Amino acid sequence: MDSALVIGGTRFIGRHLVEELLEHEYDVTIFTRGNHDNPFESDDRVSHIEGDRTNDSALEAAATTVDPDAVFDCVAYHPKDVQAATRIFDDREAYVYVSSGAAYGREEVPKREDETPLEACTTEQAIDDSSDTYGNRKAAGDRAVFAAAEKGRNAMSVRPCIVYGPHDYTERLDWWIDRVNRFDRVLVPGDGTNIWHRAYVVDVASALRIVAERGEAGEAYNVGDRRLTTLEELVEVIAAQLETDVEIVHAGPHELAAGGIDLEDYLLYRSYPHVLSTAKLADLGWESTPLEEAMERAVDAHLESDRDGSEHGPDREAEERVLGILETL
User: Are 20 and 209 in contact (CB under 8 A)?
Assistant: First the structure.
């Protein structure tokens, strides 16, 4: 493969994917609405087509203009998006859909691509835009990929878990880095042992490329860090990269209630472990970045940015009330 069309490509996963493709000497075109700054605007190796991916005519024009070997779909949020793209790019060497670990419909450890069932998706959910139906819609997109493959199209799916790293506009990890960087005592919900599988964004980008080059049509591939960490271990890894010491304080639901906080208010907290098997992807030759190296880059990027995640997690004043009560116990 020599050329690629990235639907998306300027914000987070797509941005790192473009960099990954350039490193492997692809001719890259990005297809975006132009609503966000284009980090590749001055890079003559990257062409840009402006258009709305929900407009089939715009996608058809891009297919004709670019004629890419591989298509990477980073912003397909409804099953109809995948259905249209697999039809329009039906003769490409690879169509890779960015799905999600949220597509899985049963809690088990680990979740496996060919064993764990996917979420159902009703007609109403398929056209919804709320976060409540995100997993349902991603699962329906996966099924659209499988249906396309049955028609002879080289369509595949990649399912990341929680993605972190430079340019992460969700600020989920930034919230925790900010806490560790600014305070000596860090409140960790529960007993600190909960696990929500995470994936370094650079590894997600390499997974997308490798699946396009080596994956099989009609298959889905999980992607996540090969080394999992509990939430408490995550705080410790962040502290090590910041070269600081913090006291980790645990708080259960009753203690958190003193600050008007619920366990689920904490970013990256999940009561039931969410773990994806990555063996299938590893069989293609994919490897994940060592955790300490990935976290070092994530921390450096955080320190160079203005992101702190303050709009998403509990505020410090509420946490201080909880910490004050815990001191009296």
Answer: yes
- Residues 289, 200: contact at Cβ < 8 Å? yes
Domain hosting 316: range is 172-195+227-272+290-328
pLDDT, tens digit (0-9, with 9 covering 90-100), for 220-274: 999 999 999 999 999 999 999 999 999 999 999 999 998 999 999 999 999 999 9
285 within domain boundaries: no
DSSP 257-320: HTTT--GGGSTT--SS-B-B--HHHHTTT--PPPHHHHHHHHHHHHHTS----TTTS--HHHHH
Residue in this structure with the two tokens 């030759």, named with its chain if needed: 285
Contact between 157 and 222 under an 8 Å Cβ cutoff? The reply is: no
> What is d(CA 113, CA 6) in angstroms, rounded to the nearest whole number?
24
pTM of the model: 0.97
Peptide bond into 110 cis (omega under 30): yes
